[in-house]
Amino acid sequence: MANNHNILLVDDDPGFLDSNRTLLEEAGFTVTIAKGGEEAIVQLEAGNFDLVLLDINMPQIGGHEVMEYINDNNIRIAVVVVSTETDFDSVTRAFHLGAFDYLRKPCDFSELHNTLNNALRKLELDKSLLALRKQLERSERLHRFMIESSPDIIFIVDKNGYFAFVNDRAQDLLNYKKNELIGAHYSTIIDPEYVEKASHCFNERRSGPRATRNAEIWLMCKPGDRPGWVRDRIAIELNSLGVYDNETRDEHGNIQKGEYSGTYVVARDITERLATEKLIHYQAYHDLLTNLPNRALFQDRLANTISNARREDDKLAVLFLDLDRFKVVNDTLGHSVGDELLKQVGIRLKSCLREGDTVARLGGDEFIVLLPNVESAKVASVVGQKLLDAIKSAFMVEGNEIFVTCSIGIALYPEDGTTADELIKNSDTAMYFTKDKGKNSFNRYSEEMSVIHNRMLNMETEIRRGMRENQFEVFYQPQVSAENGSIIGVEALLRWNHPEKGLITPSTFMSVAEESGIIVELGGWVLDTAIQEVKSWLDEGLDVGKLAVNFSNKQIEQQSFVDMITGMLKTHGLPGNKLEVEITESVLMYNIEQTVQKLNSLHDIGVNVAIDDFGTGYSSLSLLQKLPIHRLKIDRSFISDLKEGVEQSVIEAIAYMARGLKLEMVAEGVEKDYQLRYLRHLQCPVIQGFIYSRAIPAGDARQLIRDDARFGESAISKKKTQSG
C-alpha cells in the first residue's frame, strides 16, 4: 500500500522527524519533511501529497491551523494526527477538521503504518467516488462494484427527496433492504430532531468543493427482524453534492450544468467516534471512582450558579468536606477498601441533597457540595448537620464495619465570597478550622479564620527560609539516673534561632511543619546533626549513653524511614545501640503493621525504641507486647499534676505496668524536689527535666557530660538552680 505514496511529515521535534522518516521510507513511502506548520503550508502549496502526518502542538502555526489551510484550499489529502496533545477539545477539533485518525505520542510504528494505509485507502476510495460522478461513461459494472464496496452508505435522492439509489451498506448499518428504501422519502430514516438539519444535505444543489461538508445527524434503524440486531439509531457524517443532467463543457473547458436532478449523499458511520468523544468528555468532568462531578465540572456549575444568584439577588452555599482519619482506613485495611468507602460516602452525601444540589469529589477524601437558592446560613447549617449524621453511621465494606466522621467548612454567597475561587478557598479554610477544633463538626467561614490560615502559610514560608539560612539548632536535655544523678543519655530537641523572634521552641511551629510535610526534611536534619555531634563526643572519650530522637507519624510513614536511619548511623559510624527512637502513642494508630515492621528492623540493628508521652494515647497491652519497646516515657502532664504528699494512681499504674512488661520508665518534666522524691519512691530509674537541666546547646551539653564524668552527681546537681 505504501509504494509511490507521497507523505508530508510535519513536526517541530527533530528526533521524531528523523526516526519516523527512516521508518516510513523503509516501509516504501516517499517522505518530505516540514519542521513546523509554516513550512508545512509552503510544502502544501508547492507539492502534491497523498497524506500529511502532523503534530497538533507546534509554535506559531499548529496542526489545527494546517488542517484549516487544507480545508480552505480544498486540498484533497488524507490527514493523520500524531500528538501528545490529547485533551477533549484538541481531539474533537481535529476530527471536525477532517482528520482520519488521531494517534497519541509515542505510538507503535506498526499501528502508525496500519493507520496510514487505512487513511490512504479511504483517500483513494473518496477520490474514486468523486471521479465516478465525472466519468459516467465508465461501465455500469465498475460503477456498481465501487459503490457497493464502499464502507459508507451511499444515497442518491431525486429533486423531491425520494431515494433513487441506496447501496448495500444501508442494510448493514440501518437494517433496511434496498427495495425498502427505494421510493421512500429520506425523512423516513431521519431522527425527528435532525429532519431540518438533514434537509440541507439531502436537498443540496451545489456541486464541487463548495458542497455541504461534515454535517452530523442521527438516522433511525429499522426495528430488528434479524438475529442479533440491537441498534435503534446510528450517527452519521454526511457529505453531499448536487447532481445535474446533461452537463456540457464550453469552449474554455468549463462545465455547464444542465437541469438539477437530485443529490448524491455519502453517509459515514461515526457512532463509535461520537461515543468515544462522549466518554472522553465524561472522563474530563467526572471523578471516575465515585462517578461524581470533579473539580472542573463543580467550578463550572458554581460559576453559573453565582451568575444566577447575582441576577436574582439570591444566596448559595458551598460546603467543603474532608473525612477524618481516612488515612487510617486506607493504611490498615488497604486501598481497595478505601476506594469502596469513598464510593459509599459519595452515595450517602448525594442522598442527603436536593435534585438541584451538586456534590463533587475533589480528590483523595475531599468532597464539596453546592447548595443553590439558600435562604439563610441556618439552612446551610441544617444540611451540614445532615451530612455529618449520614457519614458517622457505620459503613460495611468487604466485611469490615467502618466508622468515620468528617469535618465541614461552609461559605455563603455573597457574604463569604463573590467568586467561585473565593467560595471554595474560604470553605476549605473553614474546614481546616473545624479539623483543628476537634473534627466531626462544621463551621462557617469568618475572616478570622483566614488570618489564622495566612499566619500558618507565613509560618511555613519562614520555616523553609530558616532551613535555607541555617537558623535551626539542636539542643540536648540530659536524661539522668534517679539513683545516683549521673547522665545516662541525652534527648535531641529542636530550637529555632529566629532572627526577629529570638529562640523559638517546637511548640510554636511544629504543627505547621507536620501539616505541610516539612517535618520530614527538618526531622532528617535533626537526626543527622545529632548523630554527628554525639559521635564526636564519643570520639573524645565522653560516655554519652543513649541519644534519644523523637519521630513524627509523617516521618515514620516514609518508605525510606529505616534506610534513612541506618544510612546516617553508617555514615557517621555511630553504633545502633547508642540511638533511641522515640514515638508517641498516637503514631501507633497509623498503619500499625508497617510501623511494627519498621521498628523491628531498627531493633535488629540494636536501636532502642521508646514510647513518648505515654498515658495520653490509646495503645493496648497487646499492641505494646508486639512492639520492640525498651522504655515508656510518662507524659509530663502527669508529673506536673503531682501534689506534694498526694499519691498519683495513674503514675503508679504505669510504673507497675512498666516493671511487669520489663520496660524502663522515664519521667520527663520533673522540676520539683518532691516530684523527684516521689518518683524515686516508685523506683522510676530515669529522670528528665528542669530539676537537673533545661535543653542546652551542643557545646554546653558536651561540657556538662565532661563535668559529669569528672565530678559525678555534683556536676549535674548544679543545674537544679536553673529550675523554675
Can you tag this structure with a few keywords?
724 residues; alpha/beta; Rossmann fold; Beta-Lactamase; Alpha-Beta Plaits; eight-stranded mixed barrel; five-stranded parallel sheet; 29 strands
Which secondary-structure class do the elements indicate?
alpha/beta
Question: How many domains make up the coordinates?
Answer: 4
What number is the mean pLDDT? 85
Tell me what portion of residues adopts beta-strand conformation. Answer: 15-25%
Outline = elongated
Order of the strands making up the biggest sheet: 20-21-23-24-25-26-27-28
The description of the largest β-sheet is: 8 strands, mixed, barrel
Unreliably modeled segments: 718-724
CATH topology of the largest domain: TIM Barrel
CATH architecture of the largest domain: Alpha-Beta Barrel
Helix content: 40-55%
Please tell me how large the radius of gyration is: 39 Å
Query: What is the CATH first-level class name of the largest domain?
Result: Alpha Beta
Rounded to the nearest angstrom, the distance between the terminal CA atoms is 92 Å
The CATH homologous superfamily name of the largest domain equals EAL domain
Number of strands: 29
Question: What count of helical segments does DSSP give?
Answer: 27
Walk me through what this model shows.
By secondary structure, the protein is of the alpha/beta class. It has four domains: 6-130, Rossmann fold; 147-246 and 258-277, PAS domain (Beta-Lactamase, 2-Layer Sandwich), CATH 3.30.450.20; 286-445, Alpha-Beta Plaits (2-Layer Sandwich); 458-719, TIM Barrel (Alpha-Beta Barrel). Helix content is 44%, strand content 22%. It has 27 helices and 29 strands. The strands form six sheets. It has an eight-stranded mixed barrel, surrounded by four helices. A five-stranded parallel β-sheet has the order 2-1-3-4-5, sandwiched between helices. The longest helix has 26 residues, at 109-134. 34% of the residues are buried.
